[in-house]
Amino acid sequence: MIRIFLTTLLAGFCVPGFLLSQVPHIEGHVTISRTAGTISCDLTLTRLPEAADYTLWLNSGLNIEMLDNAAEPLRRYVPDRYYNPDESYEAFQYVIRNQSGKMPLPPSLHIKYTGKFPVYDSIANMYDWEDWMGNMAFNGSTLRASDQSAWYPILYDVSLKKAYKAVTYNLTVRCADCTSLYLSGAAPAPGPEATLQATSPVHLLLFAGAYAFVEKDHLFFLNTPLSPAQISSLNAHKDRIVAYYEQQTGIPYGSALTFVATRASALKPGFSFVSYPTITFVGNNEGTWDITTLFDKTTAQFVPDQIPFLAHELAHYYVGTLYKPSGTLYWLFNEGLTEYLASAYVQHNQPDTAYKRLLTRYKAQTREIITFVPPGEVKQAADIAFDLYRYQYVPLLLTAIRHRVGEKIMWQWIRHILTDPAPAADYPYLLRSMKAAGITDQDIRYIDQMWLTGAGARDNLLQYLNQYP
Asked: pLDDT tens for residues 279-300?
């Protein structure tokens, strides 16, 4: 029997009708085997925006069986395929051509494709390198596939440099060897088959397999071995962090969250990521990033040192979901600004010693950056796509800016970025947004000349912050 699970999760993230018309909609069937490592999809894409210069992304391990015009099924396309890692590391890029060259994107498409991936069900056959968010991860028990993996077709507008990852959907998921099925934006459902729907746009995370799920206090917990006491502790901290962000930004937090726990398909340390409204913990066999490590084993209470981590992940609703950075300073905004928001929560809601530990770490690891490029001299996003820069140096830079302009103006600037109808993520926007938020020309010149450009930018920043131990 097919069960239909219409999302109620996104009630706090409604989209006006005129904007929804610009969001692609996906319908069809997804068939999976978690033990065989296979996935087959038969999908129809509608509400595709007009785009003359575009590509369609699809994971490089997926093979297209058929692509046609959904409104005219007899019009079959044989797309050209190429690979541009600057667009997507995980996906091939496809374009539809006719005798005149690249065809304008049809308003609807029908696509069938299939793929088979390695199943890493034991330590003996795991990757030696790291797992990552964009991996099509079959670990024997579950399949994890995020929007970054491009397991579903993603339209990319080349001229706008915009990937339409957020979609609405009505999908029937079938998995004979799965007990539970989940797509971000809908409630989890029991397997082996269910129809899942979302009427508000989400980045599609697929998590299917042999696992249990529970709901408590409007939160879903998938494959997590947490006790009721641990869930209550996590929820209490989540509520306090969300309340602080809402108060400071003036922007209500979105929908209820789903927490997913799974095992990595690699030997190296695990990780976590957000594909809102889902926070996923990918632990390894040594327990790294296992969700249970967030809690004291004796008291079941949340470990205080993990509060900055939780605050960072929750801040990704504002940066990455509401504000979607795109440009050379992508990592400065997407992770650096997010980490700054987390540090602000720690500063105002945790003991002084906790905040000082954060600042000490930021300073020490900023000094460790070997090839340092000031924000004003970044040529491409890859220049700063490493942890010491985005997670340590950038929040330190933003902390210095706060000291220079004041707490009130700093939040004014952050609110402007989060609500700007035409945001970007590059050096000109960095300066332009400061001015628009009311930062004085004198302060902008100082910040620019001392901290954003020049060979001494990092030393100037660290020296300035010495007065704020």
From this structure: 999 987 665 667 888 998 888 8
9-43: string of b/e by CB count within 10 Å (b at 16+)?
bbeebebeeeeeeebbbbbbebbbbbbebbbbbbb
- Cis preceding-peptide flag for 277 (omega within 30 of 0): yes
Q: What angle do CA 426, 14, 191 make, to 5 degrees?
A: 105
What CA–CA distance (Å, rounded) separates 468 from 231? 37
Measured between alpha carbons, how far is 323 from 344 in angstroms, rounded to an integer? 18
Distance between CA atoms of 94 and 169, rounded to whole angstroms? 22
Is pLDDT above 70 for 197? yes
Decide: residue 177, CB within 10 A, 0-12 exposed, 13-18 middle, 19+ buried: middle
Compute the distance between CA of residue 293 and CA of residue 214 in angstroms, rounded to an integer: 19
For 343, the 3-state DSSP assignment is helix
List, for residues 333-376, the tens digit of each pLDDT value: 999 999 999 999 999 999 999 999 999 999 999 999 999 999 99
**pTM metric for this prediction:** 0.88
List of residues 6+ apart from 180 with CB closer than 8 A: 188, 189, 190, 191, 208, 209, 210, 211, 212, 213, 222, 223
Rounded CA-CA distance 22/243 in Å is 31
